Amino acid sequence: MLFWELAMIRWQSACIRVVGYYTNFVLIAAFFGLGTGALLARFQWPLRRLLLPALVACIAIGAWLGQVPHLNPGTEDVFTWFGHPSSLVLETGAASAGHSGIPLAALLGTIYLLTAAVFVIFGQWIGHLFQGLPPLKAYSVEIFGSVLGIIAFAALSFLELGPVFWFGVGFVLVLPLLATTPRQWALSGACCVLGVVIALPTASQYEWSPYYKICVEPLDTIYDSKKQETVEFPEPVGYALTVNNDYHQMMLDLRPKENEHPFLGDWRQLYDQPYKDAGSLPDGPILVVGAGTGNDVSAALRNTQRNVHAVDIDPAILRIGAAKHFEEPYANERVQVTVNDARSFFQNTDQRFALVVFGYLDSHTLLSSFSSLRLDNFVYTRQSLEQVRRILVPGGRVALTFATGEEWLHKRMIALLDEVFGTPTQWVQLDSQYVYGVVYCNGLGAEKRSLGAATGEAAAGGDAAEVLVPSDDWPFLYLRTAKIPSHYWLFIAIVVGLSFVPLATLPRGQRTIRVPYFLLGAGFFLVESSNIVNLSLMFGSTWIVNVMVFVGILVLVLLGNLTAAALPLRRSWIFTLLAANIAVAFLTPTASLLAIGDFGVRAIVAVAVFLGPVFFASLIFATLIRNERNLYQAYGSNILGAVVGGAAEYFSLVAGFKFLLLATMAIYALTYLLLRRDGRVPERDTVASDQDDDADDEAGGVVDAAEDRDALVTSV
Fold this sequence. Notes:
The protein has helices at about 1-15, 25-40, 50-65, 105-130, 135-160, 165-180, 180-200, 200-205, 260-270, 295-305, 315-325, 340-350, 380-390, 405-420, 485-500, 515-540, 545-565, 570-585, 590-595, 600-610, 610-625, 630-650, 650-655, 655-675, 690-700, 700-715, and strands at about 205-210, 215-220, 220-225, 230, 240-245, 245-250, 285-290, 310, 335-340, 355-360, 390-400, 425-430, 440-445, 460. It is α/β, with parallel strands linked by helices.
């Protein structure tokens, strides 16, 4: 199930450009479907007969919606990258973004309902299986299967395999459970083949990194907006990269040539800006973060004789640059390449640099499906730039290039650099119809140098005191003010409202949410969200770190289940330990843990501080379900609570991520009070009585298990 959840999140975001900025919305839809399906387990007709057609429909509609024009969020409060530079003429991605088309709410609403429908089927299936096992054992098996699902999908990502392989493996996992007769094998196999065939074009057209669907196309035509005509070059002058149907970057041959077109001259001038007056820099190498396919690295090699350290988070994009860039920057012996995210490199390097260059580092995806953060948000915070200041040699400088499409975003960049370096930031923006972006420059040393722009002037930025500067607690670079944008409020209303619809499926008199389970689900989602952010700060935002964190969370849940099964624990003690651990996580700045020199010790302390609450929260849930006789209903309530917790995560946009820990504390305190009122805290101290109850549950579930196996045999 979790394998398919990850596959659908990546498929929808790869097909539909704007979904890449809202993958947490897809995750919440999956949770909603699972919770609804679990509540539908009271109905014996197996929805899993519809699973394969539903999966194929989800794949097909996602592919189709990717070709339909749609609108960006219509708000000035949040900046979302749109389209590509007007001078480029691109084939890929042109149909999936426009100033007219499907409204964002309708598009995401369709994806939400489509994803939820698939996972309703998975949810009912799990609910039926739960009826045949003791509660704690059933829940543990489900968690263990989730761990295997994450590892399997991570292996495919590591190998950079695309949807053909995702769906092929996913169908292989479920097909033997859904087909037993030759006729069923034929029908089910046909569905599987159709799903793979729909994804087949992606195998030859695109490369699949762990982060993006990447398309590379030759750049041989541009658009002259002044003359309002296209210009065709006799041969390609570079390549354009789109990721998830969205323009990302170019590889350009910017070596000076006679009679070259202004398009190339203007772009070379922009990339050369950080190296104006490079002779005045102190001794030391150059660091390029967001190195991408190599334009910034090539500029460093053209303009200096220094060694260059290139850092980028995406190994596939680096590999494309090494294979296709005309200037072959990554083949130069002066260049050292590191695959890592910029923030992690800043924190962990012992090197010092004369110049730190930020390439066009803005991302087109989220850090994690559990968070509203974009992948690059922690690069542009006050604490991150303070790390950059730390790794500069005396007199060193930083040059930051950014496509600041809004005036408030431009002012934010200036204020950020002003605050960290304590001197006015210089910036330049070329007067060119072909070039976009601003180069910001600041650094150490009393003497300021002119950027030496030919068509723009250096200027000092003002109004810094009036601009909200991103921090590690509030890192939302692309959000104008600390508030929830209007379209997010619409999502929250839809998500919370739909969460209570599944109650209509319950018998009259039972149409109530199991409130303790509901609250535990909401609290657990918030614990995951806040602590995934902290661990990303500690160890980096790479995909492999995220995989390790998710696997670690599920392993801790399993440990909680085993502990609850083996030890006599009073739930009141566990609540106390959970509250203490959350308080420690709230009060512990990540900078203090980064000061721990030994990596192993730092990792152990970080896991104890930031993932400890996960263990205690799972332990509470395990002790509660240990004697639960209506597990599918409890599980459904818990998952629907996670849906509401996912919606509540958006409040971090207002109050920051520390607020999520306070909200989590309040939710668990309320849960404790409700259980205490119901006489369920403290509980019995012996495990033996629970084991007797488990034996009774197991004996009573034999008939349900037999019926479930019969249903599996007859399913299509």
